[in-house]
Design goal:
CATH architecture: 3-Layer(aba) Sandwich
Number of domains: 1
CATH superfamily: NAD(P)-binding Rossmann-like Domain
Low-confidence stretches: none
Mean pLDDT: 96
Oligomer: single chain
Catalytic activity: a 2,3-saturated acyl-[ACP] + NAD(+) = a (2E)-enoyl-[ACP] + NADH + H(+)
Pfam families: adh_short_C2
Bound molecules: nicotinamide-adenine-dinucleotide
Helix content: 40-55%
Keywords: Fatty acid biosynthesis, Fatty acid metabolism, Lipid biosynthesis, Lipid metabolism, NAD, Oxidoreductase
CATH class: Alpha Beta
Distance between the termini: 50 Å
GO molecular function, one term: enoyl-[acyl-carrier-protein] reductase (NADH) activity
GO biological process, one term: fatty acid biosynthetic process
Number of helices: 10
Largest sheet: 7 strands, parallel
Shape: globular
Strand order of the largest sheet: 3-2-1-4-5-6-7
Radius of gyration: 18 Å
Length: about 270
């Protein structure tokens, strides 16, 4: 029960495939209490599908303490989420930021053709929101608390097809290092988990389906990573087990990032 007595906020559950849900489940099953946000439903959706998709997951969990809407592009939404969290939890011990978005048109274009509006949108949602949420969380973070965000190898190296999102992930990883330094002063750790390709809504939009075979062939472990493996490492980064780790980009990709050649795939190319 690594998370017994711990409370925190999970940002970025859209459905049961979301990486944030894999991490949250692990935390709740280890005794942690979680608050959740969902994307606000459109006024013309009487079925409130965004909320329903998440509440179907959280309702059965006693340790899922609240579910409130947040569009991370809106400062007032971020403010009210952290005010609500302070009211419900007082202080918190962990914050998961698992949010990214780029317009499909921009993702399918070559990076060099990214539109100015698409670039701003992708950077705002996928990078700035980490800074904004970390800042809003500051007054309610307990000493020893941890923040984690989600990144991908396309931020370190060129992964054709990942395009503007790769530029965003490079910026996000830089943000992690600056936040780790600044928030270390209040004994708060900031890290990123760099996951291999996983089938999710955002993953599909970013071309994950085309990467799964490649990762399986090239990664030292010879397989793709599972939701559960990413969930366990995310929980580790948000727990006291990683109390000496900050400013880190931790790869959960079967070792793919460590390769400097196509490895076993070479045998097939010969
Ligand atoms: N799936 C993969 O292969 C993979 C690999 C490495 C990193 N990641 C990263 O993991 C994170 C989570 O993605 P996922 O794969 O679980 O997909 P997902 O679609 O389940 O999660 C993305 C989340 O971002 C949220 N979001 C988008 N715009 C938002 C806004 N304006 N305000 C609030 N929330 C907003 C969505 O509601 C959704 O919950 C992303 O940062 C993604 O880049 C994914």
């Amino acid at each position: 029960m690594q998370f017994a007595g711990k409370k925190g906020l999970i940002l970025g559950v859209a459905n049961d495939h979301s990486i944030a849900w894999a991490i949250a489940k692990r935390i709740m099953e280890s005794g942690g209490e979680c608050g959740f946000t969902h994307l606000p439903d459109r006024a013309d959706d009487p079925r409130k599908r965004s909320r329903r998709r998440v509440s179907q997951l959280t309702d059965p969990y006693e340790n899922a303490k609240f579910l409130i809407p947040m569009d991370a592009q809106k400062d007032e939404d971020i403010r009210s989420v952290f005010e609500y969290t302070a009211k419900e939890f007082g202080k918190i011990d962990f914050l998961l930021h698992s949010i990214a978005f780029a317009d499909r048109d921009d993702l399918s274009r070559e990076t060099v053709e990214t539109s100015r509006a698409g670039f701003k949108l992708a950077m705002d949602i996928s990078v700035y929101t980490l800074l904004a949420c970390a800042n809003a969380a500051r007054p309610i973070l307990n000493p020893g608390a941890a923040i984690a965000t989600m990144t991908f190898f396309g931020g370190e190296r060129c992964v054709p097809g990942y395009n503007v999102m790769g530029v965003c992930k490079a910026a996000l990883e830089a943000a992690v290092r600056y936040l780790a330094f600044e928030m270390g002063a209040q004994d708060v750790r900031v890290n990123a988990l760099s996951a291999g390709p996983i089938r999710t809504l955002a993953g599909r939009a970013a071309g994950v389906d085309g990467m799964l075979d490649l990762y399986k062939e090239v990664a030292p472990l010879g397989k793709n990573v599972s939701h559960d493996e990413v969930g366990a490492t995310g929980a580790f980064l948000l727990s006291d087990l990683s109390s000496g780790v900050s400013g880190e980009i931790l790869h959960v990709d079967g070792g793919y990032h460590a390769m400097g050649s196509p490895g076993r795939l070479l045998n097939r190319l010969r």
